[in-house]
Amino acid sequence: MRRGRRPLPGRLHLVTATYRADRHGIAASSGHLPAYEPLPKPKWMHGKAALAWQRYIEPSCWLDQFREAAAIAFCLLWAEFQLSPRQFGAAKHSQMRAYMADLGLLGNRRGAPE
């Protein structure tokens, strides 16, 4: 098992301007990266879950089709959190944060105030 921080997705380095050709490969610097299609919002998703999809998933251009299940689960958990935050247990909160980390939604803060 690897130790240390989880690596960021490759396209996230381009979005956050932390891309370095010597670390992340030469192909990305040439501009020939495959373009990901945006994840389609499920037709059955409504309400606060749909708002979470529009707010967090749609602008995330680095997400590919393999993260769709995690994106759906995150939006459903977010909707449940918005409906009743006091009933939202610590285990669900940890699960939602894990989904955010997996989807690259936590940003580059890493706990350091700026």
The tally of structural domains comes to 1
Q: What sort of overall outline do the alpha carbons produce when their principal axes are compared?
A: globular
Secondary structure tally: strands = 0
Largest sheet features: none
**How many H/I helical runs?**
5
Instruction: Report the sheet-strand fraction.
Output: under 5%
Unreliable spans are none
Strand/helix succession:
HHHHH
Rg value: 16 Å
| Termini separation | 32 Å
Structural class: mainly alpha
Fraction of residues in helix: 40-55%
Average the pLDDT over all residues and give the rounded result: 81
Please describe what this structure looks like.
By secondary structure, the protein is an all-alpha fold. The protein has one domain. It is built from five helices and no strands. Helix 3 packs across helix 4 and helix 4 packs antiparallel against helix 5. The mean pLDDT is 81.
Summary, kept brief:
The chain contains five helices and no strands. With 114 residues, it is an all-alpha fold. The longest helix has 16 residues.
